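Our preliminary data section would be incomplete without showing what the modeling component actually yields. Below, a chain of 422 amino acids is followed by its predicted structure, encoded as tokens that our downstream tools consume directly.
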Amino acid sequence: MKEDFVSFDSVQQRARTILESMDLASLQGNDVYLVRNLYGRVRIIADEPINESARSALADLAARLSHELGAHGHPPDDSLLTLDISAFRLRGRSAREITDGIFWVDRMVTNSGWWNVDERQSQLSRYTLFSVKGGVGRSTTAVVLAWHLARQGERVLVVDLDVESPGLGSAALDQDAQPDFGVVDWFVEDSVGQGHYVIERMTGTPTWARDLEGAVTVVPAHGRDPGEYLTKLGRVYLDTDAPWTERINSMITQLEKAWRPTVVLIESRSGLHDIAAATVMDLGAEVLLFATDSESAWTDYKILFAHWHNHELAREMRERLSIVSALTPEINTEKYLSGFAERSWHLFRDHLYDDVAPPYAGDDFSFDLHDVPAPHRPLPIYWNRGMAAGTFLNRIDVAPVTLAYSAFLQSFDSQLRPATAQ
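Predicted structure:
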């Protein structure tokens, strides 16, 4: 007897089983997509023209899917669409081939997601600061890292893409240094063809950066007057003539062209939503993964790493990742970091490292627990009373910054910067 309940998680495997049980030779040469919409329902979309034998096979497949997928299927008379597919971006960020010539597409709120890695390489050094949880010091680290790199002569661009929790700009910039516009303003103006009017009016320079050998330019989420921020925020993630993922890359590229930085630091939104995925997957950046040694943080990262593993993205992602031990405690520090490193190693070993026995050789991408450098080895940032007591980011208090960040900055320089920059 057919079960009444079919869960979301079982839908794709059920579809694969149906495909494996059918003779679909007549579909060769046709573009066929199984598209799961925002509600989780699956229908077939196929490109015209289709001959009669292919149309018959698609009708049989549609009937099977409608019957076997329960509430996640479309009614039989609405489960197959044949049309000119060129008008649809079906081979977007989540399209993947699940059998010969048949693609699975998950429609998402935005055109971003955790399914594909953009392999375009920026000619600049880009770094994304990401975490699955908030409150782990990404904004503070972005400012400290910008200060550190500018002291060495780098021209650093810092972009606040955590637009749903803005604060980097107002924390790092004095009121008189706040720009007219910010990231959110660019998105809404770009939607009507006016992005170029604001691109050079959305940056400010921190007071502490004015006497450094290099330079620091901060792009906040909003300008000095946020205006109708919530109304604008609801329009940030829209696809226009280009997908949102391409628009975000376009904005950063335009900022790079205008300000000519040598290093770009991108503060990402936290969490596993597909909006955060763009800063990790689509910008060609090295990714700093901030974490604390908590069960909830490791569980969330396991969800993300398992997804990369299951969708064959391990090779594309693993070399650009470095994990950061945020808020490392002042007491029992060695024991804490030892436990953190072990749990991090298990995470990488189980999902992203090659499954080989030590010693590792050749092209094997795998590391022992104590190997340095390795993506799983934590770059530590220490909790410091002086930093926690309210050090403002519009000035740099060197003493607490040094205590909290000296080990992190040393590891960053030795492991994550190009040799030409050191």
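The longest strand covers residues 321-328. Residues 333-351 form the longest helix (19 residues). Preliminary results of this kind motivate Aim 1 of the renewal.
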